[in-house]
Amino acid sequence: MAKLRGTGMAAVNYPTGMNLGGDPSQALIHATTTGTFVISLSSTDLGQGLKTVIAQIGADALGVPVENVMIDTADTDTGPHCMGTFASRATHRVGNAVVMAAQEARKVLLEVAADELEVSPEDLETDGQGNILVKGAPSRSIGLVDTALAAHFKYAKTISGRGMFMKPKSDVDPETGAMDPDSTEAHACTVAEVEVDTETGEVKVLSIKSAYEIGRQVNPALVKGQIEGGSVMGMSHALLETTAPYYPAIDHSPGGFSDYLIPGSADIPEIESVVLEYPSSTGPFGVKGIGEMTANSPIPAIVNAINNAIGVRITELPVTPEKILRALEMKDKE
Amino acid sequence: MTQGKLNAVGQSIKRRDGLGHVTGKTVYVDDVKFRDMLHLKMVRSPVPHARIKGIDFSEAEKVPGFVRALTHEDVPKNTYTILCLIGVGPDEEPVLAEDEVRYKGEQIAAIIAETEEAAMEAVGKVKLDLEELPAVFDVEEALKPGAPILKHWGTNYFVYEGHHCRRVRYGDVEKGFAEADFIVEERYQTSPIEHAPTETTGCVVKPEADGRYTVYTNTQALFFTLDNAALILEVPFNKLHLVGGTVGGGFGGKVDVIVEPITILAAMKTGRPVRYVFMRDEEMRVSSTRGAWRMYYKDGVMKDGRIVARQVTTYADAGAYNRHTPYAVTKHAANAAGPYNIPNVSIDAHCVYTNRQPGSAMRGFAVTPASFALEVQMDKIAETIGMDPWEIRFINAYRNGDMKPHRKVVEDATLIETMQAAAEMVGTELPERLKAMHSNDREGGNHG
Lengths: 334, 448
What we know:
The complex is a heterodimer of chains A (334) and B (448).
Chain A: E1 3-15, E2 23-31, E3 37-40, H1 50-62, E4 69-72, H2 90-117, E5 124-126, E6 131-134, E7 137-143, H3 144-153, E8 160-167, E9 185-197, E10 203-213, H4 220-239, E11 270-276, H5 298-310, H6 321-333
Parallel strand pairs in A: 3-4, 10-11
Antiparallel strand pairs in A: 1-9, 2-3, 2-8, 5-6, 6-7, 9-10
Helix pairs in contact in A: 1-2, 2-3, 4-5
Chain B: H1 18-23, E1 38-44, E2 50-56, H2 58-61, E3 66-70, E4 79-80, E5 93-94, E6 100-101, E7 107-113, H3 116-124, E8 127-132, H4 139-142, E9 166-170, H5 173-179, E10 182-189, E11 202-207, E12 213-217, H6 222-233, E13 240-243, H7 259-270, E14 274-277, H8 280-285, E15 289-290, E16 292-301, E17 307-319, H9 325-335, E18 345-353, E19 359-360, H10 367-385, H11 389-396, H12 415-426, H13 432-435
């Protein structure tokens, strides 16, 4: 009886977005009288930070400070259609719609500023700090507030934009399975280290170290949040969770967190990550989706690490102490 | 892009709703309360498969605070399928069970009462006259002759354009197996899993003076819910106004449309606001899970590590109803061969019905089980042929320009670069040959 350590790895891809019947999202942007840009959506923030990353994308696409961007979501009377927040799609789809809407709004913004500064819109640039400047002559500038006021009260112009992104429907060929089901692929590679107690069958995950490639990070702290949450969720799927402990039988299904096991703070292993950025041609500023896949690569990496530690390959999830002990017993008999 | 220079993108600016979440000031659905609000609780099937012979509400009606019950007869279009909006059919799930229940916990009747306690007490006093029927729980048993048939079209599988499964056919797997030096086979099984959100699924519906209904909901997809609810209730779409956008954890569990239609109906029938929020027990035992998958992999491999054929036969346990599983199976089929360049691939992915609480969407949606099976299988291949687990993956990794088995040209591939970064991070010294590889061509010695 011993505590044996092992390491295992796994490498995965993950597709961004769905397309079964077409996968659209829309955004509308308008400026208030004093130069706040309101992005209207019907998209849902699941706690992952969608409202924050969309404000960041909108700010850079408009060329205004992020503090000047407000997100108005999610109300079906005022927000244009969004397919929903799932399939690692929201930053990619909604972000693309916001960029398109921002381009239209920015065009009007620069036209009004050009009239005020008596130059051509092509001669203008934004500094991202709330100013519109004449290229090469930055002393000639106008602020967002003055531009928005002029648009509303002097030129009768609406500084607004409409944005739409849709991945078109792709029918599946029923004979060959030919289809175009996604917009880009993100990638992950995880190395897990475990310690297996051969007396009790318990597995302790010591570390989960992963590399991810997600096109571009809009907000690295929120990306890290996905990575850490997903790593723990993956670990939990690998070792603990089931609603049917005797699957396929339905007996003894848990009804609460006293009998449905998920990791507590003390179970969380060392988590390290590195994020690569190879921008996708389809996403806003090169974005790919990271939401779902962070839970995927830890599962096989942990199962492979267990095999590396004790020489048994478990092929059914979750890898409970009972399965470990039975597998060790089988191995001893061989 | 509009701006060359990025000021906000790439910055870890503080999330805007974070302070509200950690100080308890964020308003969630369960915080929405109205003075004359009623509460809805569900009468559920105690058994996995039965014929409903009768429902007796007489004792429940005597509970102080009981307002009314709803059965399938009250639901205008009682039978639906969530993905009907994108052409998936036929309709097959009842909002409230009619003559049969097909999983333990299935919704049979709604009880509306003045308080949550009264609703629960009344639910406990509803008498069900059920005739139990044989049940099937195993996906392969469900496909055998003699298994109890759960679907009106006469099979326990979803029909994909005339086929009993979603097929992918690329190259010739039998030819690949004949050439191969090794055949590596394994069976993999995942488990149904609960989304375990902090906030359980729920909604509050308020009838407005103008005849519309405001639905405060934690759905992950507002219009998807609105459209399905309007179709079920046979009301004009603009009668419904959904307000949401803040969700205490979704993970795919709040993509189904379960609580809203019946709660809107309850508000219509009573003219009062109605609340229906799952108890933890309902979230775990009744609401959709991540479906379980059984997966058989058979690979033909050469001595040098090249995988020349991959045959995948998988079964998604949809439970009793479609929910999102028919589409999950298609997504699975597109990803079941993995991020590898394999010249001969055959995939049969089945959507199978059993007498289990439905499986549906969950983070990783049918790719998670495939990634588990694939990556354990890759290690088994490496062990079988005596090769390092890193090397087997580098040799077979897909490159930009390759053709995937579902006939989509690979773009944005960075599997090799991601593995190189992970190896460096953990201090694994890769052979020079693997370090020199990249995703844009086939330099570095692997096959093309």
